[in-house]
């Protein structure tokens, strides 16, 4: 006699699907008084403050903030060279005695002098306890646009170490200015091997009508997102 034929099931061993870890970190770039309402105010910067605040309240693994934090005689100030603002000059790293690697430096108005009001976070963000604070441009002769390292790539800030300790996989950037510190930070983030996102509606640029910085980031492999997409992604992660 025949029993009911068992369905032809092949015993497939359970496959454990390796789910890639997703560890998002938020880096808030230079939300300081001088860049919002002071000597080097970025157009429409005020508008992103509530957006940035909303991002900080999202469940990122780490919330990190950077500040431009210059001495009074910083190499990026026009006044230091007795030249006109927004002109350029070639500058060298102080250890580059042969002056082998000059970088064209835009000369800015005096801004974000350490421990002055201009260097403070905007009032809406000043009481937030970030997981890490990164200071840039603290040496008189060294300029850093990137949150990772100086413009010659010779010296790192604390950011690479902080991100390693957090175990971050995805870095989300917001803040000021899109065409300088956000752009250089995001491009370096790609170079450091991270999935890199710029939250476009939480960024404003000095040259607000130009798309050059966005094109440059895109070519580097930076991805763009917005507040709503980040909120949806983090609430389902
Ligand atoms: Zn600066």
Task: Write a structural description.
- It is a single chain.
- This protein is of the alpha/beta class.
- It is 24% helix and 19% strand.
- It has a six-stranded parallel sheet with strand order 5-2-1-6-7-8, with helices on both faces. It has a two-stranded antiparallel ribbon with strand order 3-4.
- β7, α6 and β8 (223-225) form a beta-alpha-beta unit.
- It is globular.
- The termini are far apart.
- Residues 68, 70, 76, 111-112, 137 line the site of zinc ion (ZN).
- Zinc ion is lined by residues 68, 70, 76, 111-112, 137.
- GO terms for molecular function: metal ion binding; nicotinamidase activity.
- Its EC number is 3.5.1.19.
- This is nicotinamidase.
- Pfam families: Isochorismatase.
Question: Any key phrases for this structure?
Answer:
two-stranded antiparallel sheet; EC 3.5.1.19; 6-stranded parallel β-sheet; 237 residues; binds zinc ion; 19% strand; 8 strands; alpha/beta
């Amino acid at each position: 006699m025949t029993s009911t034929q068992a369905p032809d099931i092949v015993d497939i061993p359970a496959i454990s699907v390796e789910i890639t870890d997703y560890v998002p970190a938020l880096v808030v770039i230079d939300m300081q008084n001088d860049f919002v309402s002071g000597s080097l105010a970025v157009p429409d910067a005020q508008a992103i403050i509530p957006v940035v605040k909303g991002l900080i309240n999202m469940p990122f693994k780490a919330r990190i903030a950077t500040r431009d934090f210059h001495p009074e005689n910083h190499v990026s100030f026009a006044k230091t060279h007795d030249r006109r603002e927004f002109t350029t000059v070639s500058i060298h790293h102080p250890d580059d005695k042969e002056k082998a690697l000059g970088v064209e430096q835009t000369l800015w108005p005096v801004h974000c002098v350490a421990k002055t009001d201009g260097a403070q976070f905007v009032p809406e963000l000043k009481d937030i306890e970030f997981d890490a604070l990164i200071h840039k441009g603290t040496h008189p002769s060294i300029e850093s646009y990137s949150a990772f390292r100086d413009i010659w790539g010779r010296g790192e800030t604390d950011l690479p170490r902080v991100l390693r300790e957090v175990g971050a996989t995805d870095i989300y950037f917001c803040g000021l200015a899109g065409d300088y510190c956000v752009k250089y930070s995001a491009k370096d983030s790609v170079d450091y091997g991270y999935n890199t996102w710029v939250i476009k509606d939480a960024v404003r640029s000095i040259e607000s009508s130009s798309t050059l910085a966005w094109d440059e980031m895109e070519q580097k492999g930076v991805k763009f997102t917005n507040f709503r997409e980040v909120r949806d992604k983090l609430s389902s992660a």
